Amino acid sequence: MFLTAMLFSKKDLFVTPTTQCVLVLGRSNFFDAHRIIMMNRKGSCSKKSGERVKKISSIFLIAVFLLIGQRSRAQSNVDSCGNAFGAVFLWEQNMENLGQAYDTMQWYIRHCYVNANAGQTWGGYNGSWNTEVQTQAGRDSIFNFVLYGLGLRSDDRWFCYGVPLLCVKYNNSNQTPNYRDNRTIFKFLLDNPRCAFNIRPDSAGYLDNLEGQWNYWSDTSHKGEVFDSTIPTLHDLGLDTLLSLAAVANYTALGPQIILSASIMENPFQNSTNVALSIGREAYMNIGVYAVLGQQVAGVGYNGVFEQGSHTIQLDMTNVPTGTYYLRMATANNEVQTLKIVKE
Question: Which of 23, 137, 256, 261 is buried deepest, with most CB atoms within 10 A?
Answer without folding.
Answer: 23
